[in-house]
Amino acid sequence: MQSSRLEAFSDAILAIVITIMVLQFQMPKGPHIYDLLPLLPKLLAYTLSYFFVILYWINHHHILLSVKLVNAKIIWANVIWLFFMSFIPFTTSWVSKYHMYRMPSMVYGILLLFTGMSYVFLQKEIYNMTDEKDQLGQTIGQDKKGTLSLALCSIGIILSFFSSHLAMACYLLTAIFWFVQGKVFSKVITTTQTDTDE
């Protein structure tokens, strides 16, 4: 299968995930600014989840640049990753409504953990299919932000036993870590791809 087909399918699923999340917002009960306050927890949870989806989307695009064809292992690894991604609207809605409780924030973190694990597995399968001399593939193989973010998610899950807000802060830190490391990774990918094209 062409990697472009897999990427197009994944893009469609991720777009649906974001659409479902935003459709869960209800109209404020009044015309005043303070009528938005009850929606604040949902808005914060949506923003965090939105950026997780976008960060995955960007990185997913980058790792697929290294292969033109994908095998069955990559397809199934991608399907498993999308399976966990599809649960993000559910956990986002739950944690936004019951943000004071530990269980929703714990489940939110567990989903992020399994999503991250499946993405790391997908990245590994793509790396295994690249040529050892391919600079783009080697760059992907050296990217460790997915693995390191699993540790942050695990810490967040542990923190959820004590405070749901501390847990969510840790998940936010994970997203920031992905963003910062992603900018570095994106720059390396762009440079490597330019050198390869030349």
From TrEMBL:
Catalyzed reactions per annotation: K(+)(in) = K(+)(out)
GO molecular function: potassium channel activity; proton channel activity
Subcellular location(s) of the protein: Membrane
Pfam families, per database record: TMEM175 (PF06736)
Record's bilayer topology term: Multi-pass membrane protein
Keyword Transmembrane helix on entry: yes
Name recorded for this polypeptide: TMEM175 family protein
Membrane spanning residue stretches: 9-27, 39-58, 70-91, 103-122, 150-180
Key words of the record: Ion channel, Ion transport, Membrane, Potassium, Potassium channel, Potassium transport, Transmembrane, Transmembrane helix, Transport
GO cellular component: membrane
Highest taxon above the source species: Bacteria
Recorded family membership: Belongs to the TMEM175 family.
